[in-house]
Amino acid sequence: MYSDSVVLRVDDISIVGRLFLPDKQTKYPLVCLCHGVPSGNPPESGDGGYPALAEKICGEGLGVFFFNFRGAGHSGGNIDFLGWTRDLKAVIDYLCDQETISSSSLFLTGFSAGAAVSIYVASKDERVSGVAACACPANFGFFTEAKEPQAIVDRYREIGVIRDEDFPPSMKEWFDNLGQITPSNHIAGIAPRPLLLIHGSDDDIVPLNHALQLYEKAGKPKKLVILEGAGHKLRRDNRAINAIVEWIQSGF
């Protein structure tokens, strides 16, 4: 397996990622992993996080790119969901320039907020071949209609995804930016490219009805996988990962 670290500059912010390939001699379909909002909790014992997931998927014969959105991990900046869309756009630009990646087989695989960003970007960028969206919210009402928005900012500052004291410069604009990427408003734009929705029946953060709303609004081809007993963190559920790999390898 070949891997290489990558640093991109977006809005004068360093976006850090890593490319994984089975080898450098062949062009591969590529899975771009898009994480959600970090929990701020220490990793569980034996949890290798997204890098371990990238290696697992690469072991199935696919190229994988994982990166941290601004405000997360080793990337710079502060969490900003509209900024996340620009981060992902820059990642796609980079990936489409790589000779070892099949530009006709570039799949976004997002989790929670990362899935929402993936849907938004894919609806506007035809270079994306398809989207697998896991635990994706249909809307952000539970966020944008919060009774105490300052508490959300304080929590994000506490977990380290808001790092600068003067951020956000406008709380209203910061929340409004999130509303712009509402997945239910953009999911129809993915068709006729394929869409895979995966959701846990017991998701207590983004209830299952969000997936049903998205499926109803999506164009074809589309597929909905409901994982019985699964919660929100589908990255850790092998059934979800196996469904994504099978979906890509089987041609949908």
Q: What does this entry show, briefly?
A:
With 252 residues, the protein is an alpha/beta fold.
Give structural notes.
With 252 residues, the protein is of the alpha/beta class. It has one domain: Alpha/Beta hydrolase fold, catalytic domain (Rossmann fold). Helix content is 34%, strand content 23%. The protein is built from 8 helices and 8 strands; from the N terminus they run βββαβαβαβαααβαβα. Strands 1-2-4-3-5-6-7-8 form an 8-stranded mixed beta sheet, with helices on both faces. Helix 2 crosses helix 3.
Given this structure, which CATH class is correct?
A: Alpha Beta
Number of helices: 8
Q: Which outline best applies? A: globular
Relative helix content: 25-40%
The CATH topology is given as: Rossmann fold
Strand order in space, largest sheet: 1-2-4-3-5-6-7-8
Name the CATH homologous superfamily.
Answer: Alpha/Beta hydrolase fold, catalytic domain
Total strands: the figure is 8
Relative strand content = 15-25%
* Sheet with the most strands, sense and barrel status: 8 strands, mixed
**C-alpha Rg (nearest Å):** 17 Å
Can you lay out the helices and strands and say which pair or pack?
Layout: E1 2-10, E2 13-21, E3 28-34, H1 49-58, E4 63-67, H2 81-96, E5 101-111, H3 113-124, E6 130-134, H4 141-144, H5 149-159, H6 171-180, E7 195-200, H7 208-217, E8 222-227, H8 238-249
Parallel strand pairs: 3-4, 3-5, 5-6, 6-7, 7-8
Antiparallel strand pairs: 1-2, 2-4
